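Exercise 7. Predict the joint structure of the components listed below.
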Amino acid sequence: MYRNQYDSEIVTFSPTGRIHQVEYAMEAVKQGGSGVALKSNKFAVVVSLKRSSSELGSYQKKLFVVDDHIGILISGLTADARVLCNYMRNESANYKYVYESDIRVERLVTKVADKSQVHTQRYGRRPYGVGLLVAGYDQLGAHIFQTCPSGNFYDYKAISIGSRSQSAKTYLEKNFEGFATCTLEQLILHGLRALRETIPNNDTGLNSKNVSIGVVGENYPFTLIEEEATLPYLNMLESDEPVEMQVN
Amino acid sequence: MSFNQDYISHPVFGQVDYFNKKNHQQPNQHTPYYSVHNHHQTDAGKQKTLDPIVTGSSVIAIKYNGGIVMGTDMLCSYGSLARFNSVQRQKQVGTHTVIGVSGELSDFQSLSNTLDDLTTDDFCIDDGSKLSSQEIWNYIARLFYNSRNKGNPLWNTVVVAGNQNGKSFLGKVDLVGTCYQDDFIATGYGAHIALPLLRKEYDDNPNGLSQDQAVKLIQDCLRVLFYRDARSSKRIQVSVVDSNGVKISDPIELDTYNWHSGEAAVRTFQQVALGK
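Solution:
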């Protein structure tokens, strides 16, 4: 049977210069429902599509509050995400104690990335199997960052991760130029429309059970909108004109 | 051991030292006995600032319209001895903050290193973020409070002044980590002598001071301190923090009253006794 010689641990390069374990971890991010993050000048919004393991089970939570000014959307291994979330909460609480100010979003993301990178270089470790979308607001404005198991991170105006996130990305790419001046409501609706693109046609679609929304902005601490609270936005989405289908 | 340990451990002069004991510190008949396991000999001990040795005197600072002026003299005293007379007691931290420090000079040097490490770490993380003056002030407060909790305080009072996005920041931290912000601040002897002068000038100018007024006021205060505070000197530095950043002046020798009051007596002596 064919067996890859170079993927059993993290410290070995393949002859083509790849580190397979890291690439596998990047694949883990694509599992689970999708998530979308986008920002205007004053707000950053994350919307997530939650999954349940069965009809009998609850939906797996994907949005976490890190601090008053930062929240994250996770995609991949939830257990790993909780470790990173815990770390981020600790770091921002420490920062608040020492400096009595909110940690800058990029500083926190850099710390997470540095931590993730260590796990791509040391023998006996495995990379985190999770990608984060970090939404935050600090003195430099609203921010959206994406982190990867590889230790990379990217600053975005709008981005999506998770399964079938490409369709959401396509929506965002068509519309992002208007985001900067959007109201909060418009921004949330853009997020939901992008998220809707990731759902297969035969699925149940977006509902108050499988959608949660996180909002943060100027004078607006990170707030989760879940369950019934999402209904006003979902109703607005229904009454929307149907978005024209993308032909790729 | 069954053999006579006392005999072996006290080699007599000229005797062969079979057990190579002579380099060891051993009890001697002629000196008081100390165990080699004595705590004081094995433990070098820990150094703490339990009272300051080389000290700087007052720091004074005041807000004016558009910035802050801070002044210190340059003397560091060894007790009451004016030991080091050209020591800079102000330090720029980052791009738009300056601190002025009273108290133990070596603790100020230690604080300087810590703050340099802090800005270097920020630079290395490379995310472009810089600490605001208020964050630096808070950091120093936490550092001082932490040190005093270890029973090893940094024996200083620090004045932090900064200007960012058109807003001035002025705060003070003392050796136990107590901190506050105000529009004018004075430490040490200055808190008794300069503060009323600062307060009066500030209250007499409800629309705020100009930079020239503030610089003159700080110099006047330092002059009064030179007259009244026996641990101060007339060699001073005045820093200005505004939207252009930090500017710490070169040393300035204050103009003071000419102490020639003895001249008349000399003249009289010469006239009377020497007939000149």
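Discussion. Chain A has a mean pLDDT of 93.
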